[in-house]
Design a protein that fits this description.
heterodimer, A: mainly beta, seven-stranded mixed beta sheet, four-stranded antiparallel beta sheet, B: mainly beta, six-stranded mixed beta sheet, about 0% helix
Chain lengths: ~120, ~120
Amino acid sequence: NAGVMQNPRHLVRRRGQEARLRCSPMKGHSHVYWYRQLPEEGLKFMVYLQKENIIDESGMPKERFSAEFPKEGPSILRIQQVVRGDSAAYFCASSPPVGGGNEKLFFGSGTQLSVL
Amino acid sequence: GNSVTQMEGPVTLSEEAFLTINCTYTATGYPSLFWYVQYPGEGLQLLLKATKADDKGSNKGFEATYRKETTSFHLEKGSVQVSDSAVYFCALSAYLIQGAQKLVFGQGTRLTINP
């Protein structure tokens, strides 16, 4: 059973371009989370999605950032018109459907976004 | 609000030394507490967790006890190995929404063990 797969591992963009980060959750997992790690900081929650639904996007910047988790295919974190401050490691995590609570999160290896 | 504060790194120890990485938290309610580990080039892995006061989480020789009175969850290991070199993150589960977790992380502590 493959783990959470993120691609690309490294993404370089120039200011003003778009960045698309992909995350394939573990098989059978229906919950996806995106976190961002700025240099020398901890991971910060961005968004939590279930299939075709955004459940909590309280950590997403109001502009330029969007996320989706379609019925088929990976979850996508999209950043439009990137700026240097968007340079960070973006981690995806997934968890199985609801059980007794405290479902374990499984993290991907992250995408390192560098904006030139 | 909810927050986690970790001991600043980096921490460098010799093999077989005793390890403590401090973690304190502020939270409303009664969160679950976690330690995650990130080995070079990999994603975060759950190391251990505790879900209520006085619980002790343990795994791979690491331990941490949920102390409500001091709002702490310090990570300890009696004898570290070179393979323990990694970044360690303390985290709390801020809420459960539709059965899922929302984690709040500390800034991470980089640990290097020298042979």
